[in-house]
Amino acid sequence: MSNILSKIGLYTVLIIGAFLSVFPFYWMFVMATNHNSVINRVPPAYLPGSELVTNFKNVLSNIDFFGAMWNSLLVSSLTTFGVLFLCSIAGFAFAKFHFKGKNVLFGLLLITMMVPPQLGLIPQYYIITQLGWLNDLKAVIVPGLIDAFGIFWMRQYIASNVPDELMDSAKIDGCSSFRIYWNITVPIILPAFATLAIIKFMYMWNDFLWPLVVLRDESVQTIQIAIRGLMNAYVKDNGMILSGTFWATVPLVLIFLIFNRFFIKSLTQGAVKS
């Protein structure tokens, strides 16, 4: 009886947690389908309306929505692929190779994670202007290709999941270091790739401050900067704003659903011992 009650309590908590997680997306969808007058009334509407198409047409008439979505997709995808490759290579080196100053370098890497990114805004901006990359997507892509957390995450995962004996066997068979990384390490750390991909893609997609500083031309703006253009100082159309926000969130949900299985696997790796 106590076992049944404990299961009921567990599933109740899970259902409540799932509801609280999904409700903001549902509420955003409801707001995106209603007229501004319905949104502002008390009590507000709790069911979807019929203004989804109208609100989205208003979004398209005010900003280059699909162009901004493409810019964000390009920036987020290229940065994510670059981070996965470079951070896994660096993590592999820190985890499996012994060289002078390794612990010092890794310690300095961890220290950079404690520094707020806003402190590097001015020196980064100066470098970008000297390179002539203002109003160019390279100004957002290149600085994001190396991620201290990504290196730390990959180093920890590789150290605990790639056996040294497997690497020693590969060396005896004549494998180079890069071949050991590519043919042996990469297939083992696919769950870690999925987790880091979700984290990095979401971070780059939602990044606002740095793109706002370096991307001033409307033709190269990311979706977060473009949505900011929907806010008028005199008239605030919440339905239009929430419509743009809703459709800008859809790619993030799709990315999470695609990599969800690998994400859970990476978090539970090693939790059960045979």
TrEMBL record:
Origin: domain of life: Bacteria
Subcellular location: Cell membrane
Principal location: membrane
Bilayer disposition of the protein: Multi-pass membrane protein
Coiled-coil residue windows: none
Record-annotated membrane-spanning stretches: 9-29, 73-94, 106-128, 140-159, 180-203, 240-259
Keyword Transmembrane: yes
PROSITE patterns according to UniProt: ABC_TM1
Record has Transmembrane helix as a keyword: yes
Residue stretches making up the ABC transmembrane type-1 domain: 69-259
Key words of the record: Cell membrane, Membrane, Transmembrane, Transmembrane helix, Transport
Annotated InterPro entries: MetI-like, MetI-like_sf
PANTHER family in the cross-refs: ABC TRANSPORTER PERMEASE PROTEIN MG189-RELATED, ABC TRANSPORTER PERMEASE PROTEIN MG189-RELATED-RELATED
Similarity annotation: Belongs to the binding-protein-dependent transport system permease family.
The protein, known as: Carbohydrate ABC transporter permease
Taxonomic lineage of the native organism: Bacteria, Bacillati, Bacillota, Bacilli, Bacillales
